[in-house]
Amino acid sequence: MFKKLLLLLMFVSTGALADYKFVVPQEPGAGTSVWASIIARHLEPYLGEKIVIVHIPGARDIPGFNKFHNELRKDPKTIMVAHGGNAESFLDRKSTR
């Protein structure tokens, strides 16, 4: 019984200890990437958790947005980071479908 309880606690607590993820649809070093790393560095002390920056580059940032929309958006610790122009066109494109 004790082993089952310990196993259950391990599974429940590992989600709470997961790192936050910033999804950046650009190469490392691009403007949005630099901005995301600055924000992450300042947010980590307040969150008490690490923020991992995940770069998903591609033409017009579309692969990163698609990956976030199709696979990652339901994870409450995954955040899409984009500059206004890309985010606006992505949201506009999705709302017309």
Give a description of the structure:
There is one protein chain. Mean pLDDT is 80; it is low at 4-14. The protein has four helices and three strands; from the N terminus they run H-E-H-E-H-E-H. Helices cover 57% and strands 13% of the residues. It has 97 residues and is α/β, with parallel strands linked by helices. It is globular. The protein has a three-stranded parallel sheet with strand order 2-1-3.
Keywords for this structure?
97 residues; 3 strands; single chain; 57% helix; three-stranded parallel sheet; alpha/beta
Quick structural summary:
The chain has four helices and three strands, in the order H-E-H-E-H-E-H.
Tell me the span between the first and last alpha carbons.
Answer: 51 Å
Shape: globular
Order of helices and strands: HEHEHEH
Percent helix range: 55-70%
Radius of gyration from CA coordinates: 17 Å
Please give the count of helices. 4
Runs with pLDDT <50, length 5+?
4-14
Overall residue-averaged pLDDT value: 80
Count of distinct strands: 3
Q: Structural class given helices, strands, pairing?
A: alpha/beta
Sheet with the most strands?
3 strands, parallel
The side-by-side strand order for the widest beta sheet comes to 2-1-3
Strand content: 5-15%
Question: Topology, pairings included?
Answer:
Elements: H1 2-16, E1 20-24, H2 31-47, E2 51-55, H3 62-72, E3 78-80, H4 84-95
